[in-house]
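Aggregate trends can hide what the representation actually does to any particular protein. For completeness, the protein is quoted in full, as a sequence line and a line of structure tokens.
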Amino acid sequence: MKVITTLLCICYCCLVSGQSSEAEFGAVYDFTHQKDSTNTASKITTPFVLLFNTLGQSVYYSRPQHTIDSIMNQTNSGAKALTADEQQLISGSVKKIGSSEVIYFAGNGSQFVKLVKWITGDVAVEGDVPNFAWKLTDTSEQILNLKCFKARGFWKGRNYVAWFAPSIPTKAGPWKANGLPGLITKMSDTKDQISWELVRLYQCSKSTNLSVPLKTPKMTEGQFREMRDFAIKDMNGYLQSATGGMVSTPFGQAKVSVSINSLGANTSASLLPKNPIELP
């Protein structure tokens, strides 16, 4: 309770002391995703982190992916070599990271940016801020000693139930969820295939900027889909045009020669999620 009270006091001080693009608070969520809509046993839970401030600025990322990125940054800079345990962590992490995307909200505009790990390097994909058309209710419950209120919304083919804490004055939330008058502490779709639950809330102890890295190439969602579809349809053609057939891996440069078309007619569809969060 002392931690929550301290956070509330800090929130008030931040509101009256001025603006900053730095993270003030951190929230850890358990994100659960049923990867196959026909198989309840396909649910995977991954910890995700939301760093945010009272201006609605935020960055959201997979904690396992962040750990791997930190290891790789040290390795690529020559500061250290990969240990056997680190190699095993990286090679076995595909199903455990949840998502490699990093999602940024500026808090004062109509667009957000997701940082996507692509074959040629990180790409900043700009998209419109989702409108969940939230409907607020008077129903309340306690979540981590915070009084939270229930809201209902809809976006990209899914109906959602969310809980938010007005005592934490931000429009931020996990993933692309935003726009409620307080931090989103819990959210799930009504089919119980996707959910986020706050498990920890803390004050940031070190400076973290909430801006997208300046030198990252930018493109629209439409441009990224076109590039992705081209790569899925003809990986060899894409690699030759974009990278000369060479890609970076955690273990150095590698020559890739894979023809998606040669693997079967259904391979392209199998590369896309069976139960994506955003439905068509």
